[in-house]
Amino acid sequence: MSRFRALAALAVGSALVLTGCAGTSASPAGEAAQGSDGVFPVTVDSALGQAVIEKKPERVATVAWSNHEVPLALGIVPVGMAKATWGDDDGDGILPWVEDKLTELGGETPVLFDETDGIDFEAVADTQPDVILAAYSGLTQEDYDTLSKIAPVVAYPDAAWGTTLDQMIQLNSQALGLKSEGDALIEQIKTESQEAFAAHPALADVAPLFAFTDPTDLSKITYYTSHDPRAGYLHELGMPEPEQVTKTSAETDAFYSDISSENADVFSDVGLWITYGNTDGSTVAQLQADPLLSQIPAIAAGHIAVLEDATPLAASANPSPLSISWGFDKYLDLLTTAVG
């Protein structure tokens, strides 16, 4: 099960081939990717091991969620990337903002790795990559070791699924020999995000909790820690962090945590409840009807932002290099509406 399908259960959570006939991109973006400050070999350290990329990669493969967006944003189409099995609006395995970028670059659609049951090592190997990008992932040591037999692997710096958006761009762009371009991309995204946030002043002093409750069992609340980009990115922009999230994040490097609904009072400072669910009103009604959950001020007041499950907007709530331009403003609109 992919991380996002697993989180949907929890939270309901290509190189442009620069040689050969697929050759050098005719697009300006593809050409820009050639100009870098990269000096090889490049060494990238991670929590699982060290990747040594001896020369500039010509065939780039990516696994897990959104790593492919880094090379795409820098003008490189991967030879293979993870198939989108959650948030895909037309069933082609590619999220809309990725599809837009592929069209812009004019590259061939990458091979799509089906990660429903884990990494498809054979499919990755078949793309004959020079490097495998996985800075934002949940790779196990065994996964990493197996992939490393195919090509150097860029994994996460500290904890599984705990890579920030900035770190994902930094690590993946470094492996491509495009560190300066990656830094520029970070600044571009940061400016865009800050401008969008500034245009939604109602959110400035509201403490958000990105959480999930199983509709069939409301006895437990699952919530994201600040290690997860969904929660962490909002706090980076200036939204206050609930005390329970701060406390939990200091105690664990996990990207989520659970708590009994009997202890719902720990969320007394939460001003906005963000969750996946149904936008027909049933999710809000169920939360407000529960005798324990309804004691949380944000829920009682109806300050609940519901992201329609498995939609592109829901997927874009996990910030990535290309999704910010596509949906961040719409996401902030939803949050603003929820806080009234």
Question: Which characteristics define this entry?
Answer:
single chain, 340 residues, alpha/beta, Rossmann fold, three-stranded parallel sheet, 37% helix, disordered N terminus, Bact_iron-sidero_bind
In short:
Residues 1-22 form the signal peptide. With 340 residues, the chain is an alpha/beta fold.
Q: So how many helices?
A: 14
Main sheet: strand order: 10-9-8-11-12
CATH topology annotation of the largest domain: Rossmann fold
Q: Give the strand tally.
A: 12
Unreliable segments (pLDDT under 50, ≥5 consecutive)?
1-36
- Helix/strand order, N-terminal first: HHEEEHEHEHEHEHHEEHHEEHHEHH
Largest sheet: 5 strands, mixed
Q: Return the domain count.
A: 2
CATH superfamily of the largest domain: Nitrogenase molybdenum iron protein domain
Please give the alpha-carbon distance between the first and last residues.
37 Å
**Assembly of the depicted chains:** single chain
Shape verdict:
globular
- Output mean pLDDT: 91
Family: Belongs to the bacterial solute-binding protein 8 family.
Signal peptide: 1-22
GO cellular component, one term: outer membrane-bounded periplasmic space
Protein name: Iron complex transport system substrate-binding protein
